[in-house]
Specification:
The protein contains 5 helices and no strands. The chain is mainly α. The chain has one domain. It is globular. It starts with 6 loop residues before the first helix and ends in a 5-residue tail after the last helix.
């Protein structure tokens, strides 16, 4: 089934969802480094403090890779890292019995991730974007 949206519309949608996704990931990276309630949430999930710091810097790196003119393989790794991060966040919250108020943001961000990834991959598979 082929999309009825033209290349320009797909590009606009890509930039909108990708900008929202990158803003969300940048905010969570910043929050992981600066907000005490995020440190408490990591403790609640059973993670050590150093992991929160590593994860925050990895998120910043992933956002930079998504913005930088780097080979597609590096962008693919950034997308993969974000998928692992978001999936792990949901699983971690579910494993300690948290409800949707705790894991809902990760799920919503995962939707943005999925849309961004689909719109990013689509142009690479379509000759009109070459």
């Amino acid at each position: 089934m082929e999309s009825t949206a033209g290349p320009k519309t797909r590009r606009i949608l890509f930039w909108i969802v990708t900008a929202l996704f990158r803003l969300q990931m940048s905010f969570t990276a910043y929050a992981g480094l600066r907000l005490p309630q995020v440190a408490e949430a990591f403790t609640h999930l059973g993670f050590p403090a150093y992991f929160r710091v590593e994860l925050s810097w990895a998120k910043f790196l992933g956002v930079v890779l998504m913005l930088a003119p780097v080979p597609a393989r590096l962008k693919e790794w950034a997308y993969a890292g974000f998928a692992i991060d978001l999936g792990s966040a949901i699983l971690a919250h579910l494993s300690v019995g948290d409800g949707p108020e705790a894991w809902g943001w990760a799920a919503a961000t995962g939707v943005l991730w999925g849309l961004s990834y689909i719109f990013w991959r689509r142009p690479q598979a379509t000759p009109a974007y070459a």
